[in-house]
Amino acid sequence: MKTSFRILPVLFALVAAAAVSRSVSAEPDTGISRGNNGGTFAAGTVPGERKTVTVGGIEYAFRWCPAGEFMMGSPDSEPDRQNNERLHPVTLTRGFWLLETEVTQEMWLSVTGSRPVANPADEGPSYPVYFVGWDECQDFCAKFSEQTGLSMSLPTEAEWEYACRAGSEGPYGGSGDLDSMGWYNANSFRSAQEVRQKEPNAWGLYDMHGNVWEWCSDTFIDDNYADSPTTDPGGPAGGACRVFRGGSWDDPAANCRSAKRSGDFSVNRYSNLGFRPAVAAVTE
Question: Is there a contact between 137 and 268 (Cβ–Cβ < 8 Å)?
């Protein structure tokens, strides 16, 4: 793996937590069907529309990412581009709701009932979870789905980049200014930072650049774009490594670009690697 990581020691053990409660709400309310086990999110109407669900007293805000087309990867002229970022058209036929921030420590506690191992207790509840492997993220998504009735999963690599760009075409989304949008090694004070402290992108998503890398669902192969389908790509089948995207507090600006790709074995954990799941929209 090309990206270097600084691993923190385990600082505390798992602790018991209160039972999880749940409720579903919307802002504005554009239609949610509720069932015995929570509810489902209907498709949004405009990009960046916001809906929330509350688990254990903690609000999870999601932003609507509509179906659409975009150019995935980077042009030859982009500074610091890598050979595995071949520019190609991608069509996503299904919209999805992406978590407004990376999963935070209080979110992790609200769903799992335990504190995340190796996340310092003095950081605070609004810091992103990190030091979690891909399989642990899958378990979190399964528990959230069971507790709320929503269908949560890690986004595909294509969905992640589409949401990160939110209509932009340059190296960074939103304003295009990394310092205003993300935490990286030139402004992070060498550690993760609380979420929502930087500007969001055009669809209201925070920290898509920097803070912590974010696991995606796809298997990671360094140069798979040439053989990847252009409609709803889900990554290669099989393989032990998984994709993560977005760069981190410990990385240079080049690694925080929208097109930057990285990955590692799914069991590995790092002090700058977390996740941001998506919820499927239900057509009624």
Answer: no
Residue 28: is the preceding peptide bond cis (ω within 30°)? yes
- The whole-angstrom separation of Cα 59 and Cα 21 is 11
Q: What sections of the chain are H helices per DSSP?
A: 105-112, 134-148, 157-165, 178-181
Identify the three-state secondary structure at position 181.
Answer: helix
CA distance 157 to 155: 6
pLDDT digits (tens, 9 = 90+) for 181-237: 999 999 999 999 999 999 999 999 999 999 999 999 999 998 889 888 999 999 888
Amino acid identity for residue 280 in this structure? A
CB 136 within 8 A of CB 270: no
E strands within the chain? 22-27, 32-35, 38-41, 50-55, 58-65, 68-72, 88-92, 96-99, 152-153, 213-219, 241-245, 261-265, 273-275, 278-280
Structure tokens at 1: 């793996």
Specify the residue for token string 């179906």.
Answer: 67
102 by Cβ neighbours in 10 Å (0-12 / 13-18 / 19+) ranks as buried
Lowest mean pLDDT among 3-7, 41-45, 49-53, 84-88: 3-7
Cα(247)–Cα(208) distance, integer angstroms: 8
8 Å CB contact between 271 and 7: yes
Domains of the chain: 22-280 (3.90.1580.10)
Q: What digits encode the pLDDT tens for the residues 46-99?
A: 999 999 999 999 999 999 999 999 999 999 999 999 999 999 999 999 999 999
Report how far apart the first and last C-alpha atoms of the chain are (Å, whole number): 43
Residue 131 CA to residue 267 CA, distance in Å, equals: 10
